[in-house]
Design brief:
The chain has helices spanning about 20-30, 80-110, 115-125, 140-170, 180-185, 195-204. By secondary structure, the chain is mainly α. Pfam families: Lig_chan (PF00060), Lig_chan-Glu_bd (PF10613).
């Protein structure tokens, strides 16, 4: 027998015309009787037969150790961006609803109405645990303020406890454990050695 490398010194990748390069191409065109050390893949098995034992082709990811997250972001880290955005929208919407209720009550009862800007500021003040300067005169407005106080107590309590945890334990970037983790990491540059064989097929 004659033991040799494939003529083009490649493992085997498909061409556009249905032919294969490398070892797979030599077997496809019967330029060789059998080959060793060719990783099994579904596309290769259409043009060549495999024995029961085939080559294992492991792939290893190397990445830096998880680095520390910026300390100046600890104030915003207790909540996700969607939660912060919902707080902004809900607080502003709450101030608008309270103002509309007060406006309707003043129109019905003939009392002096309230302005929009102070009402919105008072709603923000409740979220920041500032004392309420004046309570609404109607029962509907007072019930609304009561529910908003309850929401604010829950939100601020959750934020404080989470903030203490983030300030006590330094957060770190999560490690890279899979290719999906690598693709999901924003701002990372990455590369590899030149792909050949099944690695080339997999990544393409």
């Amino acid at each position: 027998y004659i033991l040799r490398q494939p003529l083009d010194k490649k493992w085997g990748t498909p061409a556009d015309d249905g032919n294969w390069t490398g070892i797979v191409g030599d077997l496809q065109h019967q330029k060789a009787d059998f080959s060793l050390d060719v990783t099994l893949s579904e596309s290769r098995s259409t043009v060549m037969d495999y024995s029961r034992v085939y080559q294992n082709d492991p792939y290893v990811i190397l990445s830096p150790k998880p680095s520390s997250l910026p300390r100046h972001l600890s104030l915003t880290r207790p909540f996700e961006g969607e939660v912060w955005m919902s707080f902004l929208v809900c607080t502003s919407f709450m101030g608008l609803i309270l103002w509309l209720l007060q406006k309707a009550w003043s129109w019905a009862s003939g009392e002096l109405g309230v302005s929009l800007v102070p009402t919105v500021f008072h709603t923000w003040g409740i979220m920041l645990l500032a004392p309420i300067p004046t309570l609404p005169t109607n029962s509907t407005g007072r019930v609304l303020i009561g529910w908003w106080l309850l929401v604010c107590v829950i939100v601020t309590t959750g934020y404080r406890s989470s903030l203490i945890a983030h300030l006590s334990v330094q957060g770190k970037y999560p490690p890279i454990n899979s290719f999906q983790d690598l693709l999901d990491r924003d701002g990372w540059s990455w590369g590899s050695y030149e792909f050949a064989g099944t690695n080339f097929l997999y990544f393409n």
